[in-house]
Amino acid sequence: MSAESALAGGPRSKDTGPPAVRLSGVHKHFGQVHAVRGIDLEVPSGQIVAVLGPNGAGKTTTIDMILGLSQPSQGEISVYGMEPQQAIAKGLVSAVMQTGGLLKDLTVAETARYMASLFTHSRPVAEVLERAGIEGIGDRKVGKCSGGEQQRLRFALALLSDPELLILDEPTTGMDVEGRRDFWAAIRQDAAQGRTVLFATHYLEEADAYAERIVLVRHGEVVADGTAAQIKALASGRIVRATLPAADADKLRAIPGVERVEINANTVLVHSSDSDAVARYLLNNTPARDVEITAQGLEEAFIALTGDAGADRGDREVQPKVAS
Ligand SMILES: Nc1ncnc2c1ncn2[C@@H]1O[C@H](COP(=O)(O)OP(=O)(O)OP(=O)(O)O)[C@@H](O)[C@H]1O
């Protein structure tokens, strides 16, 4: 089953009420810093959405406003048609943040029981631990849990109120590949029931693998919004690779549609919106061999759309970027 079909749908997604999240013309200033610059966004109920962007793009600032932790300087935010605080007070929203909030000397199960006791209506502790895939470590002290297990515990706690909307702010930062995979497996299984999930990430791989929709932000603005395939298509060109000793970069750049030429020893890489023209030129006018045409991936789209040279394949962080 594809990530999309595993994540989409479910009983909750049939809701026809107000969208889970709506942002209209939202700006946020911190003194001189214009962190969010006019974001419009609507997340329908039941959708799994990644807010993807490099460091400093404004993801956390936006999530904090959706959670009612801070107010927009301008614009409006509603959650299920209500003020964010009102939706949270009704138990419609839970969040999994990166750090904090856990007592190291309690066990996993004690932590969940303690939190459950704070809710008037709570899902059974055993059920949320199972959903988070940590039912086998209920007796383990939180301080002895790995970073990934602690995040799955935070996820379990977030499920106690059985929220309609789950918000996760870079939930897997610092986890190893296996921890990340287990964490997302748990989220994905849960989301198949139709819960709405909005997560911020700067891991392209996570957005590609787990979101139905990617909202790409850069410098506080949405620069692309769609499925991973649609975002890849925005940076629509293809790459033509060939073996060509003594390639003439200027001649290659002069072919219509060529955006970028890279020459590495005997290999040329030509990024172009008209790959056929490049291939024709290479085969008819040069001694090029091993000509290959490939579609650009999400990483190229990310670089093209966010202007960041240091995009990440999933196990490295993108370089910090300060909004200008
Ligand atoms: N409380 C604050 N005071 C001043 N500037 C802030 C504050 N919070 C965020 N900023 C600035 O706003 C911009 C957006 O920051 P934000 O944390 O929302 O980005 P982000 O996309 O979540 O980045 P990261 O991936 O690093 O968490 C940055 O330039 C940041 O330095």
Key features of this structure:
single chain, 324 residues, alpha/beta, Rossmann fold, Alpha-Beta Plaits, 2 domains, 4-stranded antiparallel β-sheet, 13 strands, disordered N terminus, disordered C terminus, binds adenosine-5'-triphosphate, ABC transporter ATP-binding protein, P-loop_NTPase, ABC_transporter-like_CS, transport, nucleotide-binding
The ordered string of helix (H) and strand (E) elements is HEEEHEHEHHHEHEHEEHEHEEHEH
Mean pLDDT: 85
So, CATH architecture of the largest domain? Answer: 3-Layer(aba) Sandwich
Q: Helix proportion of residues, in percent?
A: 25-40%
**Beta-strand percent range:** 25-35%
Q: How many separate domains?
A: 2
CATH superfamily of the largest domain: P-loop containing nucleotide triphosphate hydrolases
- Each distinct ligand: adenosine-5'-triphosphate
Ranges with pLDDT <50 over ≥5 residues?
1-11, 308-324
Radius of gyration: 23 Å
Number of strands: 13
- What top-tier CATH class of the largest domain fits best? Alpha Beta
Number of helices: 12
Q: Tell me the major beta sheet.
A: 6 strands, mixed
**How would you classify the helix and strand content by structural class?**
alpha/beta
Question: What distance separates the N and C termini?
Answer: 42 Å
How is the CATH topology of the largest domain named?
Rossmann fold
Spatial strand sequence of the major β-sheet: 5-6-7-3-8-9
The coarse silhouette is elongated
